[in-house]
């Protein structure tokens, strides 16, 4: 029983990280100086203090703050969305060709002092990749959105997207703690190209919808909804 309990708590580490990031950002917002400065100072403090990198908090807190600031200045970004998409697409393709997409193993003060460009490139790769995906989705909607079938498909996909946190939690249990114990893809003789570009994407899509329906079925259970899905309303 103790092993099962530790496994349940351990495999949702990102929920604890998200909660801590939220608390730190909440406190930083109450300080009566611009939030951009308090976010930066609180992130630097996490880099300096002992155990600030526990559960990757100092690494992910930066992106948590970035998300908040992007949302805050969303109107300004929208005004330049076309040039942003074009520049991001060019940079992302270039980064992939240059093998810059490999993430840093650890983000701490030493990385920022001795390899600052590595961290900057990682930020730009993540940001440009996100902008490219969003831009492609918007482009598809503009081109095909008027067609009824496509509009229905995109509408259903957007509904699934609202349950991202819940899907992430459920897929952690299903993929990382269940399937990997019984399914050994690395033992199957399949070409790496087929595995990377056909098999895994198909499995990922199928499991995404499985996780979505599991979330919808378990969401009415209040304690599960609060602990694992952030209290999301139906």
What brief labels describe this structure?
mainly alpha, globular, 234 residues
What report would you give on this structure?
- This protein has 234 residues and is mainly α.
- Helix content is 78%, strand content 0%.
- α2 packs across α4, α3 (35-48) runs antiparallel to α4 and α6 packs across α8.
- It is globular, with a radius of gyration of 20 Å.
- 11% of the residues are buried.
- The model has no long low-confidence stretch (mean pLDDT 85).
- Return residue spans where pLDDT drops below 50 for at least 5 consecutive residues: none
Number of helical segments with 4 or more residues: 12
The helix fraction, in percent, is over 70%
Q: Judging from the principal axes of the Cα atoms, what is the shape?
A: globular
Query: What's the mean pLDDT score?
Result: 85
H and E string: HHHHHHHHHHHH
**Beta-strand share of residues:** under 5%
The number of distinct β-strands equals 0
Largest sheet: none
Give the helices and strands, then pairings.
Blueprint: H1 2-10, H2 13-30, H3 35-48, H4 57-72, H5 74-79, H6 81-97, H7 109-114, H8 116-144, H9 148-161, H10 164-182, H11 192-218, H12 222-228
Helix pairs in contact: 2-3, 2-4, 3-4, 6-8, 10-11
Q: In a few lines, what is going on in this structure?
A:
The chain has helices at 2-10, 13-30, 35-48, 57-72, 74-79, 81-97, 109-114, 116-144, 148-161, 164-182, 192-218, 222-228. It is mostly helical and 234 residues long.
């Amino acid at each position: 029983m103790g092993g099962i309990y530790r496994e349940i708590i351990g495999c949702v580490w990102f929920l604890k990280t998200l909660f801590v990031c939220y608390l730190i950002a909440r406190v930083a917002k109450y300080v009566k100086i611009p939030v951009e400065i308090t976010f930066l100072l609180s992130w630097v403090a996490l880099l300096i203090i002992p155990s600030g990198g526990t559960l990757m908090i100092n690494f992910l807190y930066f992106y948590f703050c970035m998300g908040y600031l992007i949302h805050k200045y969303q109107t300004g970004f929208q005004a330049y969305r076309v040039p942003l998409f074009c520049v991001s697409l060019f940079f992302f393709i270039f980064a992939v060709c240059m093998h810059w997409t490999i993430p840093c193993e650890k983000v701490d003060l030493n990385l920022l002092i001795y390899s600052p460009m590595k961290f900057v490139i990682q930020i730009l790769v993540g940001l440009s990749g996100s902008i490219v995906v969003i831009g492609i989705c918007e482009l598809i909607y503009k081109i095909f959105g008027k067609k009824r079938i496509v509009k229905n498909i995109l509408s259903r996909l957007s509904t699934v997207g609202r349950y991202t946190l819940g899907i992430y939690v459920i897929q952690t249990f299903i993929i990382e703690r269940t399937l990997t114990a019984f399914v050994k893809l690395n033992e199957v003789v399949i070409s790496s190209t087929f595995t990377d570009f056909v098999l895994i994407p198909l499995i990922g899509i199928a499991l995404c919808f499985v996780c979505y329906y599991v979330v919808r079925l378990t969401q009415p259970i209040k304690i599960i909804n609060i602990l694992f899905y952030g209290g999301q309303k139906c």
